[in-house]
Amino acid sequence: MPQPPVIRPHESSFIELQSVDSTNNYARQQIHAGLAQPGMAWFAHEQVAGKGQRGKIWQSEKNSTISLSVVIKPGLLSFQLTGQFQLSACVAVAVHDFFTKYAGDDTKIKWPNDLYWQDRKAGGILIESIVRSQESGGIDDLSKSSGWSWAIIGIGINITQAYFSPFLPNPVSLKQITGKSFEPLLLAKELYKILLARLDELSTNGFENIYAQYLQQLYKRNEIVKLKKDNRVFEARIKTISPLGKLVVEHATEEEFNFGEVEWLFR
Q1: CA neighbours closer than 13 Å in the CB half-sphere of residue 142
Q2: What is the CATH number of the domain that holds 144?
Q3: 223: buried, middle or exposed (CB in 10 Å: 19+, 13-18, 0-12)?
């Protein structure tokens, strides 16, 4: 099935920042100011208020993580579940490509787009959308949107951090995995190139190959996990992820869940 193309990143540049609240916030400010170009990236040595999924804080020590935001114009990629998941999966596969090179085949993608090594979280992805309003000409008005103007791709990966908050259930860094030291800035530049290549693949060849690789690297696929939906706790086998990005599980019956509908409970 042919897929709508994304507009390829161009005039790309990689910008180094010493300290920001959040690279995603900084990228959004650059877009609002008319200073952003598709494919531009911002790397921060320090994030004092990093952003995670569902309003969570991404905690990191200075000079110990990849804190990177890249902006693109999704173009004709529809602002629907299909288009959002295609971009999310594309970024997740790029991050997996990068991390596997250093951490090996125990690297997996935990639905929807967390980076896992064995049963520990090494990184996460937060994609924020800017949508242009048809009536007002403004942005971020989803109810009257006429186009997906920008996507802000935020990536956080633990590189050299050795100590984490006890409130984080299962973090891990690349240094803990390998016993080696790394320079986050150099790794971020490498990741940036891999990401641009995967985005170009999505634009040129569509979603089929990226989707297949996403499923191949899916964390806990065909394994039984414990899940929680509202007050119901149950065990189910992770079957697949649908082309719309829904988690498909099997137990007494087959069920599908959108992101945010179900919580993983680690044993």
Answers
A1: 5
A2: 3.30.930.10
A3: exposed
- What does the alpha-carbon distance between residue 31 and residue 121 come to, in Å, rounded to a whole number? 30
What angle do helix axes 81-103 and 208-216 make, rounded to 10 degrees? 50
The tokens of 230 are what?
A: 């509202």
DSSP 266: -
* 130 is a domain residue: yes
How far is it, in rounded angstroms, from Cα 166 to Cα 157?
18
Q: How many CB atoms lie within 10 A of CB 68?
A: 26
pTM for the complete prediction? 0.88
Residue 239 counted as domain residue: yes
CA distance 206 to 189: 25
Take residue 45 and report the two structure tokens written for it.
Answer: 């040595």
**Same domain assignment for residues 238 and 120:** no
Under DSSP, the state recorded for 102 is H
* Cβ-based neighbours of 143, under 8 Å, separated by 6 or more: none
In a domain, 5, yes or no: no
Q: Which long-range contacts (CB under 8 A, 24 or more apart) does 175-178 make?
A: 177/102, 177/103, 177/117, 177/122, 178/102, 178/103
Last residue of a domain, one of 216, 239, 257: 216
pLDDT in tens, 49-79: 655 554 555 566 788 999 999 999 886 565 5
Q: How many domains is the chain built from?
A: 2
Enclosing domain of residue 239 = 224-265
Q: What is the DSSP letter of 60?
A: -
Q: How do residues 137-169 score in pLDDT, each as one tens digit?
A: 333 433 344 567 899 999 999 999 988 877 787
Among 176, 195, 216, identify where a domain stops. 216
Q: What is the dihedral of CA 214, 219, 223, 225, to 10 degrees?
A: -130
